Amino acid sequence: NAGVTQTPKFQVLKTGQSMTLQCAQDMNHEYMSWYRQDPGMGLRLIHYSVGAGITDQGEVPNGYNVSRSTTEDFPLRLLSAAPSQTSVYFCASRENGAYEQYFGPGTRLTVT
Amino acid sequence: KQEVTQIPAALSVPEGENLVLNCSFTDSAIYNLQWFRQDPGKGLTSLLLIQSSQREQTSGRLNASLDKSSGRSTLYIAASQPGDSATYLCAVNDAGNMLTFGGGTRLMVKP
């Protein structure tokens, strides 16, 4: 049981490049989400999904795209990277309802 | 909009001390509150989850309390150890689909 996994661990992009951050969970959780963590700002919700085929925006969705074709996977796409997207990105999952959230190890992204 | 505040932002204590970390939130209509631990450069590890109907939860040397009416939660760590050094985050689930995080308390336990 690997829990929540994220790849890559580190990534450097140039302004304007696109990329996809991968997230997978093997706990059959319906709810998955993406957060970004910035110094002095705490963690903020980017997008979330309550099940396959269903996604919605969080607090800071601009510049990011998501899809949920399977229960296990929830990739986050950066459409055109900007220096303001330099951050640490965390994926999380839980069962639908008021349950405990489990976080992945994070992806540290730098945009130059 | 829910706002979550953690005080103090940083704390340094000698090994063996009992300590209390504080978390306050502005909207008391919450589903649950979760405490996490984050080690430098690592992800978040869930420590305790308190449902809105509960007053406290305990796990080993950790005890978390919740007072919804006053918008406060505390994390009590008994007999602190150097291995407890980390950042502690509280997060409130108040809309079912989003956690609102506090800024964290950086704890250093000195041998």
Give a structural overview:
- The complex is a heterodimer of chains A (112) and B (111).
- Chain A is mainly beta.
- Chain A has strands spanning 4-7, 10-13, 19-25, 31-38, 42-51, 54-57, 64-66, 76-78, 87-94, 102-103, 107-111.
- In chain A, the strands form 2 sheets. In chain A, strands 2, 4, 5, 6, 9, 10 and 11 form a 7-stranded mixed β-sheet that branches. A 4-stranded antiparallel β-sheet of chain A has the order 1-3-8-7, with no helix packed on it.
- In chain A, a hairpin with a 3-residue loop joins strand 4 and strand 5 (42-51).
- The model of chain A has no long low-confidence stretch (mean pLDDT 94).
- In chain B, strands 2, 4, 5, 9, 10 and 11 form a 6-stranded mixed β-sheet that branches.
- The interface between A and B is medium-sized, with 25 and 24 residues.
Mean pLDDT reading of chain A: 94
The tally of helices of chain A reads 0
H/E element sequence of chain A: EEEEEEEEEEE
Helical residue percent of chain A? Answer: under 10%
Poorly predicted ranges of chain A (pLDDT <50, ≥5 residues)?
A: none
List the SSEs and their pairings.
The complex is a heterodimer of chains A (112) and B (111).
Chain A: E1 4-7, E2 10-13, E3 19-25, E4 31-38, E5 42-51, E6 54-57, E7 64-66, E8 76-78, E9 87-94, E10 102-103, E11 107-111
Parallel strand pairs in A: 2-11
Antiparallel strand pairs in A: 1-3, 3-8, 4-5, 4-9, 5-6, 7-8, 9-10, 9-11
Chain B: E1 4-7, E2 10-14, E3 19-25, E4 32-38, E5 44-51, E6 56-59, E7 62-67, E8 72-77, E9 86-93, E10 99-101, E11 105-110
Parallel strand pairs in B: 2-11
Antiparallel strand pairs in B: 1-3, 3-8, 4-5, 4-9, 6-7, 7-8, 9-10, 9-11
